[in-house]
């Protein structure tokens, strides 16, 4: 594996935070350029859901992160192809709120959309959410900077992960 990348405050993106919550090993590998997601049918499906849902919105590209869209009043929106809410999804939205706030935007909160089950989850943005986002960012930096690969999760938790072959291949 290659050396860990230098990660400044503005270089931690939403994917880093999502992977931190899903699997620190996945984050560590991703940060070193291992990207099997490009060959994943589940990732391709998620991109189709994203491209065909809420088609009137425009992505907000921050460089290190790409927010699905932000509505008037600075509400961050994220679309997920998953059928079940996840803490990783809310953490990703909180991170986007933090990035926007650092750019001077008065963020009100966020919403995670699950169009396949027609459900939304509100993600509050307050001092506790900010503190959690900052903690997640610091934890992501620690994982990325580690000299060794984090332990793999129990195999049952890896179902559907595009890193499965790397972690569990024989």
Task: Please give a handful of descriptors for the protein shown.
41% helix, 170 residues, two-stranded antiparallel sheet, alpha+beta, PDDEXK-like_dom_sf, Dna2/Cas4 domain-containing protein, 6 helices, single chain, Dna2/Cas4_DUF83
Would you spell out the secondary-structure blueprint of this structure?
Elements: H1 14-22, H2 24-31, H3 41-52, E1 60-61, E2 66-67, E3 69-71, E4 75-79, H4 87-102, E5 109-114, E6 119-124, H5 127-145, H6 164-168
Parallel strand pairs: 4-5
Antiparallel strand pairs: 1-2, 3-4, 5-6
Helix pairs in contact: 1-2, 1-4, 2-5, 4-5
In short:
With 170 residues, the chain is α+β, with helices and mostly antiparallel strands. Helix content is 41%, strand content 14%.
General description of the model:
Residues 14-168 form the DUF83 domain. This is Dna2/Cas4 domain-containing protein. It comes from Streptomyces hainanensis. Pfam families: Cas_Cas4. Helix content is 41%, strand content 14%. It has one domain (9-168): Lambda Exonuclease, Chain A (Alpha-Beta Complex). The model has no long low-confidence stretch (mean pLDDT 85). The chain has helices at residues 14-22, 24-31, 41-52, 87-102, 127-145, 164-168, and strands at residues 60-61, 66-67, 69-71, 75-79, 109-114, 119-124. The chain has a 4-stranded mixed β-sheet with strand order 3-4-5-6, covered by helices on one side. A two-stranded antiparallel ribbon has the order 1-2. Helix 2 (24-31) packs across helix 5 and helix 4 (87-102) packs across helix 5 (127-145). It has 6 helices and 6 strands; from the N terminus they run H-H-H-E-E-E-E-H-E-E-H-H. It is an alpha+beta fold.
